[in-house]
Write a structure and sequence with these properties.
By secondary structure, the protein is α+β, with helices and mostly antiparallel strands. It has 23 helices and 21 strands.
């Protein structure tokens, strides 16, 4: 108890203790701040991702509406059957689950009302029974009607078939504005859609004008206007399809419509009447009161233009939910750890001071210098895993230090060391080298150094380093030596070598995966997108032929579309060649000749190729690697060399394939060769190492650069392995 009281008294009177306490509190506060900043960064990242996903999904839905508008511009009259086929191909349920309806509403004058209703009732293009009960609603006589006539899918939207949107003043005003401006119009607030498939939705409409009529003024657009196309969106389905469900678990998303983009907007509104979506409302009912987040919150608001209106997205998350359990306790753990460390450090300091005082007391009774010297030497040897020994060459007697006994795993009280005893513990494969080296050191007096193995009594093998040097005492010649346990270092070196080998294998695997993925993407672009563009070009060419004389203005637009299609096809071919040039399938020689020709064409730099008539037969991996190395090297010439001439030579040297790339550019400065951002040469070297090749570079400022690459050709073992793989596949 006396010592304990003294310790605590010393502790609380120590300036170091109070300084450690202050530092511990500061570390805890900084950790809490760091955790909060990390969580805020994570929240901002998730909110940005959700915003981008929402904008992309909404834009894709607006693009669908524009596509429907374009359909009606392709012909003076689009039938119900054509409209049905077009919407059916869109596959709304799978591709655009938030779109609940696509519709067309023609403008019907009062004088044409009865004929229009009769035509719709007798329309049997989709339903053999027609629509015998069709009538414009609400009833009544008006100067004009804007009637929902084509509706897809009809099963879930039949309840609004025949509805006159012009009968509602607010809708009529919006339709008139859309007609006069040619822009998309939106309902701007949620609409309760009744019927068997009722949902809360949002409506958007776009005007449709007659083909060939001018649209430069309001009067011209009114004269050309003959109806509108529209889309009904289930906002909840749209949002749930855009934002990942797992994100919704801790991130609350609310959408508000704050008005048209030409109005005086007031961002930051929380008016329930403007609320379009709330991820916390489980039922999707716009009148439902969603649960509110409480506590300390992260909040982020962003503005998104949607057609003619502006939406505001509000993202909120509870700070406590953003932090995992470990983050919540981390500041307290840091505080506890820092305080504990302070106490421990002071305890060590106190113990050292106490031990020193006791050592001084004991030193008065014992031979202090000798004991301290021996203890210090033994401790130093133990810490360094370094033992010492002395050999009398004439008698073979040896004197070992305590650490030497420990390294050999020998009990110093039971075993008396002798030279032959020492040699017996040397590994059998290394014993001759050790004996010869020690004898040579005794004869010549030269220092002997060797890393070798020793065998312990239990069969354990350790790596050690032995160093010996000849010396003398007062009477005899002695061989003094040290032995260091380097097993851990050896294991570390072996692990490092293995890690480098694994890293090289991983790099080679990544290159193979990347090339395979490029090949797959190029094939899919060629097979899918290429064929689609070809079919589209054929259709546009037919349209060009039909409108050449009858519709000159439309024909001009069609020819422009043909030019755009041709440019797109050319771009796709360039992308395919960049991903995986098809010429690689014709052999390495053909691929390199094609690349050189492309280099000349794109840069205008003179490029000479020296290659034999014999085709080099190499596997796809080597051919692809050499091709990519050539691409990277020529890219470096373009970016950095300022060269006017390039020479490329491909030849076979014994069992290796060699490629030399030489330019007359500015060369590479030695300090730039290992620059942090010079990944080109690093990538080339990694590709060559993956194939067990050799890479040489010769360059000097103002004297150009020469790269020489040696790749071993496929060995017989690799050929046999490939044959076995093919046989196993067959």
């Amino acid at each position: 108890m006396r010592i304990s009281k003294r310790f605590f008294k010393s502790l609380f009177c120590s300036t170091a203790w109070w300084a450690g306490l202050a530092i511990s509190l500061a570390l805890s506060v900084l950790t809490a701040k760091s955790v909060d900043e990390s969580n805020e960064t994570h929240f901002s990242y998730q909110a940005n991702n959700a915003q981008l996903a929402i904008k992309a999904r909404i834009q894709s839905y607006i693009d669908v509406l524009r596509g429907v508008s374009a359909l009606f511009y392709t012909s003076d009259r689009i039938s119900r059957e054509q409209f049905h086929a077009y919407v059916e191909k869109l596959n709304l349920e799978q591709s655009f689950p938030g779109i609940k309806s696509l519709n067309f509403a023609p403008r019907v004058l009062a004088k044409d009302k009865k004929a229009f209703e009769a035509a719709v009732r007798n329309d049997t293009s989709i339903d053999p029974q027609g629509y015998p009960d069709f009538a414009i609603s609400p009833a009544g006589e008006r100067s004009e009607y804007h009637v929902l006539t084509y509706l897809e899918p009809i099963e879930s939207n039949r309840v609004v078939l025949g509805s006159d949107m012009w009968a509602r003043p607010a809708v009529a005003k919006a339709l008139a504005a859309s007609r006069d401006t040619g822009q998309v119009t939106s309902s701007g607030k949620l609409i309760q859609i009744n019927g068997p498939y009722h949902h809360i939705g949002l409506a958007m409409r776009m005007p449709v004008y007659r083909r060939g009529m001018p649209l430069n003024s309001v009067e011209q657009r009114r004269a050309a206007y003959y109806g509108s196309v529209g889309a009904g969106f289930d906002v909840r389905m749209l949002m749930l399809g855009a934002v990942d469900k797992s994100t919704m678990n801790y991130l609350r998303v609310r959408l508000y419509d704050i008005g048209r983009n030409d109005e005086n907007l007031a961002p930051g509104t929380t008016d329930p009447a403007r609320l379009l979506f709330d991820s916390a409302a489980p039922t999707g009912d716009k009148h439902a009161q969603p649960p509110s987040l409480t506590g300390n919150l992260f909040v982020k608001r962003v503005i998104m233009p949607v057609g003619p209106r502006i939406w505001e997205a509000e993202f909120t998350a509870n700070k406590a939910q953003m932090a995992d359990g470990y983050d919540s306790y981390l500041p307290w753990l840091v505080l506890a750890g820092a305080l504990t460390s302070t106490v421990l450090l002071y305890s060590i300091y106190y113990s050292l001071m106490t031990a020193r005082r006791r050592a001084v007391e004991l030193a008065q009774e014992m031979t202090k210098d000798l004991r301290n010297s021996e203890a210090s030497l033994a401790e130093a040897q133990h810490m360094a895993h370094l033992g010492s020994w002395v050999l009398e060459p004439g008698s073979g007697k040896m004197n070992w230090s305590a650490e030497t006994y420990r390294i050999f795993g020998v009990d110093r009280l039971l075993d008396e060391p002798h030279y032959e005893f020492f040699l017996r513990h040397i590994h059998a494969e290394d014993r001759h080298k050790v004996r010869a080296g020690l004898d040579h050191s005794i004869i010549t007096g030269e220092e002997f150094t060797l890393e070798h193995r020793i065998t312990l009594a239990d069969g354990t093998v350790r790596w050690v380093q032995t160093i010996s040097r000849l010396g003398h005492d007062d009477r005899n010649m002695l061989l003094r030596g040290t032995i260091m346990d380097i097993s851990e270092r050896k294991h570390t070196v072996e692990a490092l070598k293995r890690s480098q080998e694994l890293l090289r294998e991983l790099t080679a695997h990544q290159d193979r995966v990347k090339e395979d993925e490029r090949k797959r993407i190029a094939r899919e672009i060629h097979d899918e997108l290429g064929q689609t563009l070809l079919a589209l070009r054929i259709d546009v060419s037919m349209l060009d032929a039909r409108t050449g004389k009858t519709h000159p203005r439309l024909n001009e637009k069609v020819r422009g579309a043909l030019n755009h299609l041709d440019a797109t096809v050319k771009t796709i071919r360039t992308i395919i060649n960049n991903l995986r040039p098809a010429v690689l399938d014709l052999g390495l020689t053909a691929a390199i000749e094609w690349q050189v020709a492309e280099f000349r064409r794109r840069t205008g730099i003179a490029c000479d190729l020296i290659i034999g008539d014999k085709e080099f037969v190499v596997d796809d991996t080597r051919a692809t690697s050499l091709f990519r190395i050539l691409q990277e090297s020529l890219t470096n010439v373009i970016r950095h060399a300022n060269a006017t001439r390039v020479l490329i030579e491909l030849y076979q040297e014994d069992d290796r394939l060699a490629m030399t790339i030489m330019d007359n550019g500015v060369g590479i400065y030695p300090e730039n060769r290992k620059a942090a951002n010079s990944f080109g040469l690093v990538g080339v070297e990694e590709r060559i190492n993956a194939l067990n090749g050799e890479f040489r570079i010769q360059s000097a400022p103002g004297r150009g650069t020469t790269l020489t690459i040696y790749i071993p050709l496929e060995t017989e073992d690799e050929t046999l392995d490939s044959a076995r793989l093919l046989n196993s596949v067959e």
